[in-house]
Amino acid sequence: MKDLRNMKVGDIVTEDFRAAEIFKREGIDFCCGGNQSLEQAAKEKNLNIAEIEYKLNNLDEVVSNRQLNYNDWNLDFLCDYIVNEYHNKVYKLLPQLTEYLNKLVQVHGANHPELKEIADLFALVNTELPIHQRQEEEVFFPAIKEALRTNSVQAKEIITSQIAPMMDEHELIGGTIDKINVLSKKYSVPDDGCNTYRLTYKLLEEFEDDLHTHVHLENNILYPKALNLTK
Description:
Strand content: under 5%
Largest sheet: none
Order of helices and strands: HHHHHHHH
Radius of gyration: 19 Å
Distance between the termini: 35 Å
Number of domains: 2
């Protein structure tokens, strides 16, 4: 068996994306928290490190809908994939989820006061995430493509200056979604929940899953490789 204890969680997922399924089940953050070692992550969650390591060494038993080897992709292609697969979906879902959450607050807020807090937290995501994505689309991703094409010094300077603040934004947005997960009790619909309640929580859970993959692709694959272009 491969010794994974001292490997970073993000690196484990980068090597084989099926590991993300294991981490999701165990509640281990592999995107924003991808820089911690597997041993640190297991201790933080009070998990049996030997069991986690065994599962990660037997990933052929894991069924995953996402078995693409992102780590082998060219950076310009990865940038385009992130926009088409994740950014565009975010732009579509944010207003839809905002509308649904506001309706839930109006109809169920009296019996479920946590809905107001969830709606307020999601309003922060609705404000911050589009700004973040536009910055990537209009400044950061073009700089990566320019550095690949021409080895431009200016493009490299943009790459270097952008990564730290973008990772901070990932922390803010990811942490906000984590709070929503806790408040909703992992998107558990109460007994008096209507169809809109069920649909909203289902979409929120899918939104969180997509965000984890989205941030993983950037924090653990795109950003490190983009920094290598500047050397």
